[in-house]
Amino acid sequence: MHKDSRLLRVGVLGAGPIAQAAHFDACRKARNAALYAICDRAPDLLATMAATHQPQTVYSDYAAMLADPQVEAVIIAAADQYHVDLCCQALAAGKHVLVEKPLGVDIAACAALAEQVAASGLVLQVGNNKRFDPGIRAAHEFAAHELGRRMTLKAWYCDSVYRYSMTDNLQPIIQASSAAQRPAGNPKANRRHYYLLTHGSHLVDTAHYLGGPITAVRARLLERCDAWCWFIDVAFADGALGHLELIVAVRGDWEEGFTLFGERGSIKGKVFLPWFHKASEVECFSTADGQYRRVLGADAYTYKLQIEGWAGTILHGAPQTGASVDEGLAALRALVAINQSVEGGGEWVQLASVQGGL
């Protein structure tokens, strides 16, 4: 495994499921980053993860990790409700940040965080790892440079009742601890909000990444058969029309994909469950030569690729290709607007006017 001579020294906050399934291993495999530190309040979890992933050091206190001058950047893999405060602390300590999606759960707090990022000069990237899927990235480039004016975008994200039968065989065995810190109450109890934040954040970010800024949404929700089904009309800033579908969960295979139709071509994409590390099957058709194109994407470990992109921006000033803090804020605005439209009877909601959170 090739490593660059200069590695970004990363501290990971939180040793829970997403860190165990993705961030620890991705840090170790990234060509330009090193897993320098792990921080978690649960002593048993911290000891187990340290033995497995062998960081240079461990911390049970976040402030102590942030005070370590060897830590250059942090990955925040804690509960959504903690994201903004933990990001603010990291920025105040002069650390770059990769924070799991969603950016947060409250619009005002995320807007204040965006101002702090702008004032700090530091890099904050939101963990929308699917932007680093080689197929989705190829679709983005084609849409930006060859598709011409966009006419329509349709995207769907359908979780499966059989997903855990798949992921249990793909992921490491997740270790739990009774000492793990959790938000007050149970955020997962409101499944409408939980599913919107967890799965909807992927869907709206893909729509933004491929279709540009979203200005308004109109949404309907059906709750039936222990499933939640959102159908969402979307207005894009460039005048294109959009439609998004979020279903949790379908009785069948995982389904995720998108289609775009434009002035000089079209794009069709089939996205796979991310734990397979398989690039999306994306075909781009161009009227310039009358041919379809498809990228192989041999390396589709999106969690590793997003760390490499983040580290490249920090170490070498490469353009930021991951979701920025402003794009993370835009995604939360879209999710809040979708929820408000559902509660308001399916009326159009302008993203610029929404307040509050989920």
Report on this structure:
The protein is an alpha/beta fold and 358 residues long. 36% of the residues lie in helices and 28% in strands. A nine-stranded mixed β-sheet has the order 14-13-12-11-7-10-9-8-16, covered by helices on one side. The mean pLDDT is 97.
Characteristic key phrases:
7-stranded mixed beta sheet; 10 helices; alpha/beta; 358 residues; globular; 9-stranded mixed beta sheet; 16 strands; 28% strand
How are the SSEs ordered, and which strands pair?
Layout: E1 8-13, H1 17-29, E2 33-39, H2 43-53, E3 57-59, H3 62-67, E4 73-76, H4 83-92, E5 96-100, H5 107-120, E6 124-127, H6 134-145, E7 150-160, H7 163-170, H8 191-211, E8 214-224, E9 227-236, E10 241-250, E11 255-262, E12 265-271, E13 281-286, E14 291-294, H9 302-316, E15 323-324, H10 325-343, E16 349-350
Parallel strand pairs: 1-2, 1-4, 2-3, 4-5, 5-6, 7-10
Antiparallel strand pairs: 6-15, 7-11, 8-9, 8-16, 9-10, 11-12, 12-13, 13-14
Quickly describe the structure:
The protein contains ten helices and 16 strands. With 358 residues, the chain is of the alpha/beta class.
